[in-house]
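Tutorial, part two.
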Amino acid sequence: MNILILNGSPRRNGNIARMLKAMREEAESRGMKVTSVCVADLRIMPCMGCMVCRKKLACVLPDDDAQRMLELIQGCDAWVIGAPCYWGNMPGQLKVMFDRIVYGMMGESPRGIPIPLHKGKRAILVSTCTTPFPFNILFNQTRGVIKALKEILKWSGFKVISTIEVGGTKQHAVSDKALERCRKVIRKL
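Running the prediction step on this input gives:
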């Protein structure tokens, strides 16, 4: 099985990175092929909103890491995405990536109805925030991130098999219990 792990946090060694590392180690120990990418390492120009990619199935902007990410997504069997909460949503650079690769995530019927291009693939979503539990969920902090990612993945055909939301990271780093939950969810793949 080919797993793609995307750290959507600009912090390469933060809580999201710790959680994704536990998942990567578990996957590798089970013989899965794992590719890990950190969004902070990517060079992706913002989308211009020209909509040409919808017709030509290619972006008009010069090649950058958006196309490389799309190739990795197309080649994976399962995708793990980790993203901290920024204003109740995913960090901007992660959103820019999704904007740039929309043509490779979902197609459109002649009437504009979305056509998922990744049917049968599975996804796991991970989010953290400083707002303590249960307010991280009640106030749509980590829940906002998960909701936004689920929306993108749903229209792309991915089936989200699990989500992990950790609040209160201002006072406490991600717990050993949360890290074990990360390992356990990989076993479901």
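Residues 93 and 100 are 11 Å apart (CA to CA). In part three we will examine how such features are distributed along the chain.
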